[in-house]
Amino acid sequence: MVAAGHPGEDAKLYNAVKAVGMELCPALGICVPVGKDSMSMRMVWDEAQEKKSITAPMSLVISAFAPVIDIRKTVTPQLRTDQGETDLLLIDLGHGKDRIGGSALAQVYREIGCTPPDLDNPQDLKNFFALIQQLNQDGVLLAYHDRSDGGVFTTLAEMAFAGHTGIDIQVAELLDDSGKDAVRALFSEEVGAVIQVRREQMNTVLQMIEQHGLSDCTRLIGRLNTRDEVRVLNGGKLIFEASRVQLQRLWSETSYQVQAMRDNSDCAKQEFDNLLDAKDPGLSVALSFDLNEDITAPYINVGAKPRVAVLREQGVNGQVEMAAAFDRARFEAVDVHMTDLLAGRVSLDEFNVLVACGGFSYGDVLGAGGGWAKTILHNDKMRAAFAAYFARESTLSLGVCNGCQMFSLLHELIPGTENWPRFVRNQSEQFEGRTTLVQVGESPSAFFSGMAGSRFPIAVAHGEGKAEFAAAGQIDGLHRGGNIALSYVDNYGKLTEQYPQNPNGSPMGIAGVCSSDGRVTITMPHPERVTRAVQNSYRPDDWAEDAPSLRLFRNARRWLG
Q1: What domains appear along the chain, each with residue ranges and CATH number?
Q2: Is the preceding peptide bond at 527 cis, omega within 30 degrees of 0?
Q3: Gap between the Cα atoms of 141 and 159, Å rounded
Q4: Which of 138, 156, 184, 371 has its CA 20 to 30 A from that of 472?
Q5: Which helix (H) or strand (E) holds 390?
């Protein structure tokens, strides 16, 4: 993006295209397949009979993509504290030049600076990429974080935040005899990254680094400490010290202030204050069943695949992943649109399992799932068909997210749901898309059979998920009847109404309920989105292929026999 025609800007554009398109890309063996430009980044206007103008600086944004061979080989910035003694290495492709022009540090002081960071040798980047790929393939990398957005200090602090651990940064490794100061070394945004490796594997790692020609730009930059503090040392001299919690609060302060003005201020404060808990254990898993047991195995040789109606309406978007979850549990998933039922092309009599999927039916203009429910309640044919289906004792039904909202509004057609809530706007006043912890309750739900007491992460994505009860005593009736199938819990495993562990503010942490006989279950979280281990943003190391949510769908297959 450039102000073409403005003095000096065309030359900058030529130099940029030459550097990227004719020098860097060929050296790296990559190409720019498509581009989008804006060549009019200058505004001219008259104000009080005076002509004024403003010119935006030339800018370039590149989005890169590449194939991923094995999604299980992902690396995150989270420092691992469960791997014994570890070390942190900085791979500095700036070779100690520490240019700070245009850096976040310069902007803090309302300056621009002179010389920005640069990639002086494209071969360094190729070698670096090959090195990281090999380290990752060999299972040596524990954590990885780019240092080009804030500098080494920011990189290490963010890694410490993610890992909830203290860290000692040894700045002496970044300095030389030229009188360079520690601030430049810590905050320059040169190309490079910090990696965490096991100390017992250090020699192997250093050999790999040498083989890729990067020994001269690799430094031992830090180690973890047990003080939960971020400390900067120059040799044996301590030059900076702060608690990890204090720094993380400072790091989150701006986001908190924006959230407090934009969203529900109480929810924003609750999330911000969560950072005060230095002992927060984070996400965890506790299962009351064998994750690796395939309870549908007896049906492999039989070959029978019950048909499940994967129901959707205009605006619903979760049908494909829902079908995939049932397919993994040995069902035949059938795509059924509401228009198929209305036109008589498909009948619910053909199915023993019905699932209403997540999304935004009719854009939720009539409230959460309201439009979808009304196409059934206000159509005599549909009303009778659904009532007959729910009354048939050989059927199972599952509603997720928008489908959960819709089913809750059909409660008058579903036996044993007189205490069900409806779902209204989240207490946070915003759409919530995040990972949270849930715990399975003692309930008759066929989908949660044998899972009571289990705790595991799950995906949520909804704007109207807060359970609201029409009459006093309904929530107590749900509780006494054992019909609360799923609840939000905090990182200590306790039922919670606190945000964001409870993303919508539902009372008693309600995340899912079931009918009295357990044949109909509705949940606001999305179990179908996290049935495979690789679909979970957080997962224990021993999860191989399956994730806990898959058990819901396997339970349905076993229930049908």
Answers
A1: 9-55 (no CATH), 73-255 (3.90.650.10), 297-560 (3.40.50.880)
A2: no
A3: 14
A4: 371
A5: helix 380-391
**CA dihedral over 256, 63, 70, 134, signed as positive or negative:** negative
Please state, in angstroms and rounded to a whole number, the distance separating the CA atoms of residues 269 and 70: 39
Position 179 scores a pLDDT of: 59
Question: In sequence order, which residues have a C-beta less than 8 Å from that of residue 196 and are 6 or more positions away?
Answer: 79, 80, 86, 87, 88, 141, 142, 143, 144, 159
Q: Please report, to the nearest 10 degrees, the dihedral formed by the alpha carbons of residues 441, 442, 447, 449 taken in order.
A: 130
Closest CA to 415 of 508, 516, 314, 324: 516
Q: Are the beta carbons of 529 and 516 closer than 8 angstroms?
A: no
Beta strands in 199-276 (DSSP E): 218-225, 229-234, 237-243
85 among known catalytic residues: no
pTM to 2 decimal places: 0.90
DSSP annotation of 23 reads: I
Report DSSP state, residue 546.
Answer: B
Structure tokens at 330: 């040995």
Token code pair at residue 459:
């995906």
Cα separation, 431 vs 429, whole angstroms: 7
Is residue 184's pLDDT more than 70? yes
User: Cα–chain-centroid distance for residue 429?
Assistant: 20
Contacts with 38 (C-beta within 8 Å, 6 or more apart), sequence order: 1, 2
As a whole number of angstroms, the distance between CA 473 and CA 1 comes to 61
Which regions of 244-395 does DSSP assign to beta strands (E)?
307-312, 332-337, 353-356
Q: Which residues is 89 bridged to in the sheet?
A: 195, 220
Q: Is 528 a catalytic residue?
A: yes
Give me the mean pLDDT over the 25-30 stretch.
93
The catalytic position among 401, 404, 411, 462 is: 401
Look at the chain and count its residues. 561
Residue 173 burial (10 A CB sphere; 0-12, 13-18, 19+): middle
CA 293 to chain centre: 27
Contact 523/400 with Cβ under 8 angstroms? yes
The answer, yes or no, to whether residue 181 has pLDDT greater than 90, is: no
Residue 249 carries which side chain, given as an amino acid letter?
R
For residue 181, the surrounding DSSP H or E stretch is none
Least confident of 226-235, 292-301, 333-342, 532-541: 292-301
Three-state DSSP at 260 gives helix
Annotated active-site residue 217? The verdict is no
Q: Would strands 466-468 and 422-424 be described as parallel, antiparallel, or unpaired?
A: antiparallel
Give the neighbor-by-neighbor strand order of the sheet with 520-523: 332-337, 307-312, 353-356, 396-400, 520-523, 510-514, 484-488, 432-440, 455-462
Over its C-alpha atoms, the chain yields an Rg (Å, rounded) of 28
Q: How many CB atoms lie within 10 A of CB 363?
A: 10
Classify strands 432-440 and 484-488 as parallel, antiparallel or unpaired.
antiparallel
